From TrEMBL:
The keyword Coiled coil applies. Residues 116-312 form the Guanylate kinase-like domain. Residues 290-317 form a coiled coil. One of its GO terms (biological process) is DNA synthesis involved in DNA repair. Keywords: Coiled coil. This is DNA sulfur modification protein DndD. It holds the Pfam family SMC_N.
Length: 967
């Protein structure tokens, strides 16, 4: 599409208005977007216009756009094609559609040479014919029509299935001045007309059919390679749809900002009043709390500073009043505690003595319990002796009751003792506490420490008293009582310290109240200050917005000018699009009519050659392509008639296909194409016309001078084509698609030449294929010439029934006849599998392609050299006598030349003669050894040795005699 758009744009850019040029610019950019990202031109065009960064420098911009378009349209777009043309010389393909990548990076792909006249490729369906034609089309035109027809991305269509590598193609022309890697748009468009595919002819056979839903214009444009122009014209919507879409692109962002700015200005006026009221309220509070008028935030800050200082001073005073706590006690407290303790100890001793005296050896408590249980027994006899109660002196149960009363007093006495013991222990704890408080005062208050003499009981902590150690209690308590009278100064000092501490606490409590009041006032001041500052900040923001309102409004009005200009630009594009759309459709119709006018004069000539055997009354004299009523119609006139008939109605499907091929050939002729590529075209034409097509391709004045690249899966057509072209130059290839990709081989070239050519182009697979076929040819020829029997299997192949010898039988025979042959060992290691060979066509079967270890060009070179060596060995076995005769003759000639050496002879000539002599001499010396290795009869070896010795000795004797002057 880009080619035809450039042609259209170049006609209009200098004469149309600026808006029209802008449309040309947008469409060109959209076409570039399609190349990069795919998609539809209309979608890219809308996006380009919508996102366009338009400014007010319209005049400058349109000049830049015009310059940009003129530069990119180039000078190669013209009515006539003036670039140099050439026939195709070679194409190399790798990882493209059916073509594989070989074994590794050394392989550069399949290299195919084309004859400058005719080149035919034969192969069944799936062999790679279309892949080859697609490769030529992609390299020459930058696209593949079949990919477009199937609505697939070109990058996906051309990639080899299962391969991650990118396709690689290179093409060269007979004219080395043409660079196949840098074809211009016009060259690509020109070469796109050189491809004639079966599908295009089959589609044309549906011309006029309503069932297909395909318009006649579309079928015709595809047929003559003008579908890009047709698609370009169809890519644009009607002016009404364009208007609807573009009007939605008009911009209102700035207008909306202006509306928002005006609304915000009204809102800010209200907010200003609210913030001012808040500030005034906080000022009133400040005046009250500070007891002054017109207080400011600075006054609040000063007040906060004063409050902080007051709080710090009060807390410091409180801290200075704090001291170590004095535990208050008096001498009387000690004496009372001791007196109470001693009194209770005395009673404790008395209770203990009484309880001990009252107890017996029995456990009265248990006895008491037993008597209680006895009283509950009901019986008529004594429980101790079973004497009847009536006969006893004193009733045992009465006696038990009397004794039980006594035991009850013992139990109550024991309970009193336990209770008093607990009271004594509490008295001991009280004394311990007083003692320890005294010791704590002594250790924490320096002035008291010196009032308790060292080494006295009260100079240390109190011991822990226990009633089990009465001696300790009595001793310690007695010592403390004695010491109390000596430390009256201590008790006096404690009383004095306690009084001072009480006065300080009153002051501390007062200070704490003052700090609390200070903090309350501080919080109130801080609240006023915070509310005032927040309201002031908001007021400042509002004032700023109110102050910049006019400035912002002015800037937005300036931006709105650009926005309004863009919207006006959209309106101008809408207006210009109507003219653009109309002129593009007119351009398309003109291009078609121009092409049709040229075609009409040539179509009939090709059609008559294809249908030369039609009856006289069916012979067509002319064709006319009619575009009246916007409905394309191909009309024809038979010989001797003046009536124009509609071909889509009168022609059979076979004749419509012939007409389609004729139109394609006429299109090639009027464009003077140097080559034509036929992609399995013959399959679209019925068999009755194929002989006529071959005759036309050989004898037509235009076609016979045009390079024809033909692919077919019709074997009969291939053979006929080959026979007809034997009088001139042509090349014939056979294609087959293997698991590793498409392979081909030439139908005529010598094997060495073919293998070396493949290796020179790093076409490793092709070199392997030729090496396999050459090896089988050598082996089978050797067996036939020596009348050697081979075992094989009678089986049908693609073309005929043949007996194919087994791989094992070939190797067994060669191993037996050529024992320990080093070249055969190399080939046997890589096991060249022969089973896929077809003796008539050397077709290739991937599943029998069994070079196990060969993976690089170096290894293939090794196999090639091994096959060459094996061929040399077999030729040596066959002609060793002749070879020896020629060697002996050459040796004598070298010896004669040695005799002519002199100092005046150039050194390189002397070295050449000596080197050749040494080489032949080495071959003669190795000759018997080689005969031995190849198991030649001993008698023949001895005969050869005799001939060699005779010549060598004769030359040595002659040299000695000459040296001694004897001759």
């Amino acid at each position: 599409m880009k080619y035809y758009f450039k042609k259209f744009a170049k006609q209009k850019i200098q004469s149309e208005a600026d808006e029209f040029v802008w449309l040309l610019y947008f469409v060109y950019c959209s076409l570039m977007d399609i190349e990069a990202h795919g998609g539809e031109i209309w979608e890219h065009l809308k996006r380009r216009i919508k996102d366009f960064n338009f400014d007010k420098r319209t005049v400058t911009r349109i000049k830049n756009v015009s310059t940009f378009l003129l530069r990119n349209l180039g000078d190669d777009i013209s009515t006539a094609f003036n670039s140099p043309v050439s026939k195709i010389k070679m194409i190399q393909v790798k990882d493209f559609r059916g073509f594989g990548s070989g074994f590794n990076g050394d392989c550069k792909g399949v290299c195919i040479d084309f004859d400058s006249n005719n080149t035919i490729f034969y192969g069944p369906n799936g062999s790679g014919k279309s892949s080859l034609c697609d490769a030529l089309e992609y390299k020459l035109t930058g696209q593949v029509r079949e990919a477009i027809r199937r609505n697939r991305r070109i990058s996906d269509y051309i990639k080899r299935i299962g391969s991650t590598a990118n396709p690689s193609l290179s093409i060269s022309f007979v004219d080395d001045a043409i660079d196949g890697e840098r074809l211009s748009e016009s060259e690509k468009n020109y070469y796109s007309q050189a491809f004639i595919e079966k599908n295009r002819i089959q589609e044309f056979s549906l011309f006029g059919s309503k069932d297909t839903g395909i318009k006649k214009e579309q079928i015709l444009s595809i047929l003559i390679g003008m579908d890009d122009l047709s698609n370009l014209a169809k890519a644009f919507v009607q002016p009404t749809a364009f208007r609807t879409n573009l009007l939605s692109f008009k911009r209102s962002v700035v207008a909306n900002k202006i509306a928002s700015l005006n609304a915000a200005n009204v809102s800010n006026t209200t907010l200003k009043k609210e913030h001012e009221e808040t500030i005034n309220a906080e000022k009133t509070k400040a005046d009250t709390i500070l007891a002054k008028t017109n207080a400011t935030i600075a006054d609040l800050d000063a007040e906060l500073l004063k409050l902080d200082e007051a709080i710090q001073a009060t807390n410091a005073d409180t801290l200075s009043l704090s001291s170590v706590t004095v535990h208050s006690h008096t001498q009387q407290d000690f004496e009372t505690a001791i007196q109470t303790l001693e009194s209770n100890l005395q009673k404790f001793d008395e209770l203990n003595t009484a309880l001990i005296a009252a107890k017996t050896d029995l456990s009265f408590s248990n006895l008491y319990t037993a008597i209680q249980e006895l009283q509950t027994t009901v019986t008529d006899s004594c429980p101790a002796c079973d004497t009847p109660l009536a006969s006893v002196t004193k009733n045992p149960f009465t006696k038990a009751a009397e004794e039980l009363a006594k035991l009850q007093g013992i139990k109550e006495q024991e309970a009193e003792f336990i209770a008093h013991k607990t009271l004594v222990e509490q008295n001991l704890k009280s004394l311990e506490s007083l003692h320890n408080y005294l010791n704590l005062n002594r250790t924490t208050i320096t002035i008291l420490n010196g009032l308790i003499p060292s080494g006295t009981p009260l100079h240390t902590a109190s011991p822990q008293y226990s009633l089990s150690d009465r001696n300790q209690i009595d001793t310690t308590v007695s010592a403390i009582r004695t010491q109390l009278s000596t430390i009256s100064n201590y008790f006096n000092e404690v009383d004095s310290l306690q009084q001072r501490q009480s006065h300080k606490q009153i002051t501390i409590n007062a200070n704490n109240e003052k700090v609390s009041e200070f903090n309350r006032k501080k919080r109130a001041v801080e609240s006023i200050k915070t509310n005032w500052e927040n309201a002031q900040t908001k007021l400042d923001t509002v004032n700023l917005a109110l102050g910049t309102y006019m400035t912002d409004l002015g800037e937005l009005n300036t931006e709105k000018v650009v926005e309004d200009t863009y919207n006006s630009f959209i309106d101008s594009l809408v207006t210009a699009y109507t003219s653009f759309y109309t002129q593009l459709q007119t351009f398309k119709d003109t291009e078609f009519q121009t092409r049709f006018g040229k075609l009409e004069s040539e179509i009939a000539g090709f059609y008559r050659q294809i249908n030369k055997h039609d009856a006289e009354h069916d012979a067509v004299s002319l064709f006319k392509i009619n575009n009246s009523d916007s409905d394309y119609k191909i009309e024809f006139q038979v010989k001797g008639s003046t009536v124009l008939e509609d071909a889509s109605i009168k022609f059979s499907e076979g004749h419509l296909r012939s007409l389609g091929l004729s139109i394609l050939l006429a299109n090639a002729k009027i464009n003077n194409l140097p080559f034509i590529i036929f992609d399995d075209v013959v399959n679209a034409i019925d068999s009755d016309h194929r002989a006529n097509i071959i005759e036309m391709m050989v004898n037509d004045s235009y076609l016979k001078n045009t390079q024809q690249v033909v692919s077919t899966h019709d074997r009969l057509y291939w053979e006929r084509f080959s026979v007809e072209n034997q009088r001139g130059q042509f090349k014939s290839y056979i294609l087959k698609c293997s698991m590793q990709g498409v392979v081909h081989y030439h139908y005529k070239l010598d094997f060495k030449e073919k293998i070396q050519n493949a290796l020179d182009h790093f076409d490793i697979r092709q070199a392997l294929l030729y090496s396999r076929i050459w090896f089988e040819t050598i082996a089978k020829q050797y067996c036939m010439e020596n009348n050697i029997q081979l075992t094989g299997t009678l089986k049908p192949n693609e073309f005929h029934v043949a007996i194919e010898p087994s791989l094992g039988s070939i190797y067994r025979v060669l191993k037996e006849k050529l024992t320990d042959n080093e070249h055969l060992k190399v080939l046997h290691t890589d096991e060249i599998n022969y089973k896929g060979i077809n003796q008539e066509h050397h077709s290739f079967d991937e599943f029998n392609f069994n070079f196990i270890h060969s993976r690089t060009s170096t290894e293939v070179q090794k196999i090639f050299e091994a096959v060459t060596g094996l061929d040399d060995d077999i030729q040596f076995l066959k002609n060793h006598d002749t070879i020896l005769t020629n060697l002996l003759k050459s040796y004598k000639e070298c010896c004669d030349k040695l005799k002519t050496l002199n100092a005046r002879m150039p050194i390189h000539i002397q070295n050449g003669i000596i080197q050749k002599h040494d080489e032949i001499l080495k071959q003669l010396r190795d000759f018997p050894t080689r005969m031995t290795k190849l198991k030649i009869e001993t008698s023949l070896i001895q005969l050869a040795e005799g001939k060699i010795k005779k010549v060598l000795i004769g030359n040595i004797v002659s040299a000695l005699m000459k040296k001694n002057g004897m001759i």
